[in-house]
Request: fold
Amino acid sequence: MTPLIRKALLALLLLAIAGGAYVGWQQLRQPGDEDSLVSGNGRIEATEIDIATKLGGRVDDVLVSEGEYVAEGQPLVRMQVDSLQAQRDEAQAGLQQAREAVAGTEAQVALRESDYQAALAQVALRESEREAASRRLARSESLAAKQMLARQALDDDRTAVRSADAALAAAQAQAEAARAAITAARTQVTQAQAAIAAAGAAIARIDVEISDTLLRAPREGRVQYLVARPGEVLGGGGKVLNLVDLTDVYMTFFLPETVAGRVAIGSEARIVLDAAPGMVIPAAVSFVASTAQFTPKTVETASERQKLMFRVKAQIDRGLLLQHLDQVKTGLPGVAWVKLDPDAPWPARLAVQASRE
Reply:
C-alpha cells in the first residue's frame, strides 16, 4: 500500500469517527436546552447568625448543645449578673434617697411659704402704723400752724412717721426675701424630682442589661457550633455560638455576562445536589448582582474565556424547607438551573419534585 493510499484511508477513518461523534451528541443533547436553560455550579448556603454578648462578662451556663434545633425566643446562654445586680441595688438606693430629698424640699417650700405669709402680715402691720403716724403728723402740723402745739411735739410726730416708713420698708424687704426663698425651695424640689427620674432611668437601663444577659434565639434554627463554654470570660460582642436558619436556604452561583441579563428576579430555578442527583429541588431567583466581577477561583466554568460573571442566588421555598428540616444540610455542592424562558416547560430530568417522599 502506497503512502498516498494510507493517508487517504486515515483521513476517511477520522471523518467517520467525527461524524459518529456528532450524530451521538445530537441524539443525547436535550432540544432547546441551550435557549431556555442556563446553569451554574454552587453550594447550599443558609443564613448564619452569631449569638454574641452585648456586655462583657462571664458565661454562667450554655443551655443548648451543638446540632440542637431551637425555636425563636428560646434561651440559649445565660451570663452572670452579679455585677449588674449590685449596680441595680446602688441605683435603687439612689432612687430612695432622691424620694426622701423631694419630701424634704417640699417641706422647705411649705416652711418658706409660711414665712412669706408672716412677712406679709408684718408689712400690713407696718403700713397701718405708718398710716396712723401720718394722720397724727397732719393734725400736729395743723395745730402748730395755729400756735396751739409745742415745737417739740411736732418734731416727735415727724420722727414717728420716718420711723414708720423705715419699718414698712424693712417688712417689705423681708417679704421679698421670703418669696425668693420659696422660689429657691421649689427649684430644689425640681432638682430632687429630676434625681428621681435619673435614678429610675438608671434602674430601667440596668434591668435591660440584666435581661440582655439571657441570650435568646432571634429566630428558629439549628445550633451549628459552640464557641464559648461556661466559666469563660468574654468581652462586649464576644461570640458564644453560631446559629443557622434552615428556613432561609439558597444556592449562590455565577452566570456569564452573556446570559445574566436574561435572568430576572423571581425566575424559576431548579437545584440538583451531587449527593442526591435523582432529587430536583424547586427554587426561585432571589438576587442577581447589578455589577459583574471576575470569575472566582472556586467557580468552575464551561469556558475559560468567560472572565466576567454575575453572582446569582436561587432561594429554596420556605414551606418546602419546613417539611424537610431534618434533611437540610449546608455546604453540599450541586448545580442550579435557571429557566430563561418562563413559557418553556422544564425538561423531564428537572421535573422531579423535592417534596416527594
Notes: Helices lie at 3-28, 33-36, 82-145, 151-212, 257-260, 318-323. The radius of gyration is 47 Å. The first strand starts at residue 37 and ends at 52.
